[in-house]
Amino acid sequence: xxxxxxxxxxxxxxxxxxxxxxxxxxxxxxxxxxxxxxxxxxxxxxxxxxxxxxxxxxxxxxxxxxxxxxxxxxxxxxxxxxxxxxxxxxxxxxxxxxxxxxxxxxxxxxxxxxxxxxxxxxxxxxxxxxxxxxxxxxxxxxxxxxxxxxxxxxxxxxxxxxxxxxxxxxxxxxxxxxxxxxxxxxxxxxxxxxxxxxxxxxxxxxxxxxxxxxxxxxxxxxxxxxxxxxxxx
Length: 233
What we know:
Elements: H1 2-11, H2 14-26, H3 33-56, H4 61-107, H5 112-122, H6 126-137, H7 144-152, H8 158-173, H9 177-232
Helix pairs in contact: 1-3, 2-3, 3-4, 4-5, 4-9, 5-6, 6-7, 7-8, 8-9
């Protein structure tokens, strides 16, 4: 594993390594060797694709390089970006209900530790399960404040990071945590409404694209099918 890390740091730019380390952290990953192995595999496969593309595509170095670039984009999307997008959507979907229950627990007079424990027991979703895991760390010497800050680094959603940051800051400062979380939840709800409106506005464009690339060729095929059959009969 140490060899992979040394090799990666010699081949790749520091910013490139940091970019994938950050994405892996947002995927709630803790073993950075995954990133080093990913980058080594990507390099090795890219070399193979470049070699075979050059042989099979008429010895065109330009096309071969384009194939390698396309592979790198797709490989990064499949291994990181797509997973990140799904994780972000799931966490944001879970967060509104989770933090609403947390606020109710706080309003009942419980402290943050008790409220989080009760919320995790009452709510069953991805966000709840991950916070339940970090709550276990507090039993082994990690403070709740430190555990929440560490978890914040693993969240790909700006909205949820902002809520957790608000919780940690008010927990230390002693400010009104309930009203601060309520304000963050209002922003999260507004973002959700905005995302829904944006999705609805994009639907006509998606339908148009489907019509151009699928429905129109299909209609043309149906219209011209008698002519085509007569030609080959």
